[in-house]
Design brief:
The complex is a heterodimer of chains A (114) and B (116). Chain A is mainly beta and 114 residues long. Chain A has no helices and 12 strands. In chain B, strands 2, 4, 5, 6, 9, 10 and 11 form a 7-stranded mixed beta sheet that branches. Chain B has a 4-stranded antiparallel beta sheet with strand order 1-3-8-7, with no helix packed on it. The chains are: A mainly beta (114), B mainly beta (116).
Amino acid sequence: AQSVTQLDSQVPVFEEAPVELRCNYSSSVSVYLFWYVQYPNQGLQLLLKYLSGSTLVKGINGFEAEFNKSQTSFHLRKPSVHISDTAEYFCAVIRMDSSYKLIFGSGTRLLVRP
Amino acid sequence: DGGITQSPKYLFRKEGQNVTLSCEQNLNHDAMYWYRQDPGQGLRLIYYSQIVNDFQKGDIAEGYSVSREKKESFPLTVTSAQKNPTAFYLCASSAGLAGAGQNEQFFGPGTRLTVL
């Protein structure tokens, strides 16, 4: 079975500070990895994804993530956050042998303070 | 503009009533999905459909039903058999099921269902 763990339910940070949102996964097969962002009472928007190739993936809104196979992690980072980055962030995986079923972590709420 | 619409945005239901949530997409996507979101939890898959007139149960299908009579529409019915239906429901679509993870799932804005 696959699982995705986001240990931090909430991450408070001051504006213009760097941030890292942690994501670890477990799977018996190789997976593709995704980060989604959800603003209040809205649907999810894809931030970035890792399918293959370079382990450092750049996404929208200045976010990036690094795939670490040995540590089974896919942490999301931004060097300088803005108030508008306040949202819920979800890490998700898809098994390579079942390329439709997204398995989500429980989410991390990023709270950016002025 | 292409996208996914869900209606209504907020829905209230009395216990024992069935209610249907609408999901429409004009992206010409073959695959559509329904997810349930509860506070402090990630999304869980209720049902998915790869093509018209075909759909499959996800992880938490009990108490729900769907239909896929048209490519652009995938309504979800929350039946009285669903014991805890209060949640945020999200519809998504993708070009297809296959594609080595490259078929991004696009999400609608969601419907918040509250059982009174």
